[in-house]
Design brief:
The chain is of the alpha/beta class. It contains 22 helices and 11 strands. It has 3 domains: about 140 residues; about 240 residues, Rossmann fold (3-Layer(aba) Sandwich), CATH 3.40.50; about 210 residues. It has a 9-stranded mixed β-sheet with strand order 4-3-7-2-8-1-9-10-11, sandwiched between helices. Strands 5-6 form a two-stranded antiparallel ribbon. Strand 9, helix 10 and strand 10 form a beta-alpha-beta unit. Helix 3 packs parallel to helix 12 and helix 16 runs antiparallel to helix 18. The C terminus is likely disordered. It binds guanosine-5'-triphosphate and magnesium ion (MG). Magnesium ion (MG) binds next to helix 3.
Length: about 675
Amino acid sequence: MSFNEQFDQHGTWRREFALRLKLLAEWMKDHDLLDAAVEERLRRLETQVRSDKVMVAFVAEFSRGKSELINAIFFAGYGRRIMPASAGRTTMCPTELGYDADVPPCLRLLPIETRLQTQALMEWRAVPEKWTRVDLDVNDPAQLALALEKVAEVRHVTKEEATALGFWHDENIDDNPLVGADGLIEVPKWRHALINIAHPLLKQGLVILDTPGLNAIGAEPELTVSLIPQAHAVVFILAADTGVTKSDLAIWREHLITEDDENISRLVVLNKIDTLWDSLSSPEQVQAQIERQRSTSAEILGLPVDQVIPVSAQKGLVAKVTRDDVLLAASHLPDLELALADGIMGKRQRILRSAVATGIAELRTEAGRSIHIRRRDLTEQMDELRGLKGKNATVIKHMRIRIEQEQIEFDTSGAKIHAVRSVHLKLLRDVFNLLGTPTLRGELAELTKTLKQPGIKFGVKKAYSQTFNRLRGALQQSQTIGGEIHTMLMASFKQLNAEFGFSLQAPKVPDMKRFENDLSLIERSHLQYLGVTNVLKLSQADFSERLVRALATRLRVVYESALGEVELWNKSAASQLDAQLRERRRNFGRRIEAIERIQNAASGLDERMNEIDVQEDELNLLDSKLTELTSHLAGTPVSSLADVVDLDVALNQHEKRDAQDTVLDISAA
Ligand SMILES: Nc1nc2c(ncn2[C@@H]2O[C@H](COP(=O)(O)OP(=O)(O)OP(=O)(O)O)[C@@H](O)[C@H]2O)c(=O)[nH]1
Ligand SMILES: [Mg+2]
């Protein structure tokens, strides 16, 4: 399956999943199984699947063919070149292509002058009025291509301005751009470009990041410390006619090698193999030459040779546009698409599906608890009623008095339950403090101060590791407090279970290890960025501030998800208590009502026992339906779900609507 097909399939799965989840939620609501924790889990699963993005970043020195490759893989359907690709430097600013339904099709450009302020790129995203907007017409590929040429726009500025914008460094002369005859320096006009179009793949959550070559890529720290490390796949491109040059190697070292990170796939492409096609050489000779370039490149980059994929982006694009299958095969573009499909989409799908499966299992447990409580109540009622069989009116009256007594006792014992809640909340507050924004802000202010010290050059690693060790320490500390909360809950729940016959279970403490790992990855991307030449930039005014602000935007995401986990955990414990209390109160009501019926009519007892039998059967049905629905959700293949008739009817209607959308998109392309 090609990348595009696999992406399509993934999209279909996600849409179906979202719909099934919605139907499950409705079903749960109808059967009174939606408590706060279940609702929260449903909401999270829905967001997780709906907003799942897959970002593929194309990184290389200028003119290696990044934009051409993007055209060939994703946009050949437009029948022409869409992203500008030409000799020399073309793409001047990082360009993100994606789809946001809330924004009309457009190109948004952030002026380069925003570099003079300290806000991080992520922060600028939240200020739409600072971006220049150009509307795009997806039905007109020529207009589309013309509009996108803006990403190649430049300005000419003085050395002072270039320095302020981060394109000129007195301390690092070799890396500076050329100065024109007029003494001016060419810099990008824009800092970042966002393209929003309803391309079928983008609509399904693909985000493509096209980047500029060496000088420009180094000028935006956030690319290296945030965007590229967060991409799910990075495609690094070399050109067959140049081989691995010094600047290719600089980009590879500075932006791409990180120790094995499970979640990122890296592909190396040896592009422009058509430049080696030569009518004076035999096909074997050409092939041998390509293989030679391939193995030399692999060796220099320290990779196994099969990880370098030789292609011709340009011929691949031409072949797709002219429907020339022979040329397409010769371009080897399909090999690259296959590698993208397997390596990236395959992995991404597995990660998402396994995360979703865990979420659903937890949802099942959570909802299963309510059923368990109800079943237990029914059993106890049944036992109670059995004990009344054949008994006289005095015994029955006595029973009523006992139940009423129990109810009064239960109502007064609310204080105990309240005490558990308040200890729980107090301990939780400590966790929230450890992971809260003020703590993070304090740490980062400290880091900025340290980085600003003159001569910090050799102390950067230490400064980062001190900050990150403290941050990791706080996560570990919150894990410890989490453990204490768990112990406390286990003990209190056990006591409440014994005293009131509850069936409370203390939920599992969220594991903070994942967030610690995230922190380490972030630390590493910063050290890598600062490890090479960029460390010299720390002496520039505001550079440390900007770097730390970029760091803050990334850390905030980690902290927010850690806090989210803690909150969910809290809800799971609290809503169990609530559900248990609610069911118990109802239970008293039902028991008294049963006694009344028995007191009023001789047949009341049998009637009530029959009712309980029926209710037990219903509960069993509910339980197996819940298992069925949740396991269908966790399982993948849609075809095997035909038995869930009511779901499928809804699904069909939904699919029809969606198919119409897709037809419109493709006809636009
Ligand atoms: N012969 C040949 N030329 C190619 C191939 N791929 C790209 N090119 C050409 O190489 C030039 C540079 O391609 P781009 O796609 O603009 O390169 P880029 O990496 O995006 O470069 P920047 O945007 O400047 O960073 C263009 O003229 C392309 O047409 C290829 O496979 N074969
Ligand atoms: Mg380009």
